Amino acid sequence: SLATGTVSEASLSAALGTTLGGSMRGLDVTGGGGADPRKKITLRVCNFLRRWVENFFHDFQTDRDLIEAYSTFVESIRSLQDGSLANILERAMTKQLDGGKKSLE
Hints:
This protein is mostly helical and 105 residues long. The protein is built from five helices and no strands.
C-alpha cells in the first residue's frame, strides 16, 4: 500500500492504467512472461516525469535547460518505444505550457 511505502507491480499497473485512461494498456509491468526489466524501469521513469511536470511545473518554468532535457528524453523514448509513452509525456508538458501561456520556443 502507499501508506507503508510498498506497491505491488500489479497495483502499479492498475493505477497507471486508471490514471492515464488506459493509455498504458498493452505494457507488461507485472513481471510475468519474462517482461524486459528495462521496460518496467522506463515506465516508472516516465510516470515519475509526468507527475513531476503535472505537480511541480514551476521547476520547469525557471529552467529552460530542464525543458530542453525533458524534450530530448521524450524524443529518445519515442525512438525506443512505440511512441505512446512519449505522447503521454509530451501531452503533460504541452498542457502545462498552454495553461501557463508559455511555449518551448
